[in-house]
Amino acid sequence: SATGYVWETTYGWADLGTGPMMPAHAAAGIQPITHHVAHPDTKRRMHELISATGLIDSLTPVRARPASREDILRVHEEEYYERIAAQSLLPKGGDAGDGETSFGQGGLDIALLAAGGALAAVDAVVSGAVENCYALVNPPGHHAERNMGRGYCLFGNAAVAAAYAREQLGISRVAIVDWDVHHGNGTQDIFWERDDVLNISIHQNRCFPPDSGFIEERGAGTGEGYTINVPLPPGGGMGAYEYAFDTVVIPALRRYAPELIIVGSGFDASIMDPLARMMLRAADYATLTRKVMDLAAEVCDGRLVCVQEGGYNPFYLPFCGLKVLEELSGVSSGIDDAFAETLSGKGGEELMGHEREAVDHAAQLAALLR
Ligand code: 6DK
Ligand code: ZN
User: Fold this and answer.
1) Domain region containing 22
2) Which of 150, 167, 247, 266 has a beta carbon 3.0–4.6 Å from 143's, enabling a disulfide?
3) Residues 180, 164: Cα–Cα separation, whole Å
4) For each successive 10 residues of the chain (370 residues), what is the average pLDDT?
């Protein structure tokens, strides 16, 4: 039972410009800086830890292919694709829509390879070449809506992969579990009216986008009830996440019985992340992985694809990713979370009353409360 792994060198070449988090702007006091907050080095460092520890030798390399125009158009508007393609030809690139989703010249090709990494991972898992697969892709995807890029995302990589599994591989039900700390608004937009893709997002309440991801957003028409949002209050750690998974995520997956599970795997709910205020440690990501793997074994022969989303602490993210890959593969890298001791005893492990209430409320709207 092999574990596939996708990484391509050019994922590390995505050019977000010289701004820190938004374009540098002298008059506004925004100084240029060497590393944008979403600089791909953070993800490249995860790849290097997986390489340096030797864990990579226990993984099955899966090569990304560029997603085709047709692959992208399953979930995005043609007009949007053309807009990105045109800007990608410009010497200084462009922006996918919201003014903070910049990309450099040729950025289209990197984005197509990111979506294609998710496609290759789905192919590897569905064909049975591997049991599960981690696609360490960049740029991320879950904020990209049908007709607009947002939040560093150009194309909805996980959504592209889910639609491909449905339409080209004969998979009838796909579930997406998005544990990136931000709301997967793009995936939600894309599958809003569909019941063939169950979309569950667990995120910090109102972190980004600040105006979506509420429990009342449940999908519409045929899709009603197939969008599930679990917004958690800031400050939560494994206590809150464990309760959210045990009460909402896992029961919803069991009820839906997907034939394939795609995890939107961001590591920005970690205690070290600069963009959010949650408290997960590397070992907690292994626990979440285990919960989804056990459910996948129960309902879909273990078919599980993880697609990288965000994560912004260059020191800590590699350990979070390493622990997920150890869990997926059942192989120890021999390296432990170097920050584990420093980060222990800071609270967050215990479920707090207001977190329980928030999760119970989400369970209620998802009609899951016992
Ligand atoms: N901007 C992601 O990790 C991307 O989910 C996160 C994008 C955060 C953008 C920065 C931000 C704001 C906040 C409030 C109002 C306007 C703009 F897609 C992933 F990479 F996965 O907080
Ligand atoms: Zn995020």
Assistant:
1) 3-365
2) 150
3) 22
4) 96 96 95 97 98 98 98 98 98 95 98 99 98 98 98 98 98 98 98 98 98 98 98 98 98 98 99 98 98 98 99 98 98 97 89 98 87
Q: Is the CB of 143 under 6 A from ligand 1?
A: yes
Q: Which of 31, 33, 29, 35 is nearest to 14 (CA)?
A: 35
Nearest CA to ligand 1 atom 21: 310
Question: Is 310 close to ligand 1, i.e. is its CB under 6 Å away?
Answer: yes
Q: Describe the strand order of the beta sheet including 227-232 as a list of residue ranges.
A: 60-61, 3-6, 132-135, 304-308, 260-265, 174-178, 197-204, 227-232
Which positions are annotated as active-site residues? 143
Rounded to two decimals, the ipTM of the complex is 0.95
- 370 assigned to some structural domain: no
Q: Is residue 98 part of a domain?
A: yes
What tokens appear for 38 in the block?
């979403």
Decide whether any atom of ligand 1 lies within 6 Å of the 309 Cβ.
Answer: yes
**Number of domains the chain contains:** 1
> Could you tell me the two tokens for 134?
């981690």
CA of 54 to the centre of ligand 1 (A): 33
Say if 92 falls within a structural domain: yes
CATH number, domain of 276, equals 3.40.800.20
Nearest ligand for residue 210 CA: 1
C-alpha 256: how far from chain center: 20
CB neighbourhood size of 79 (10 A): 9
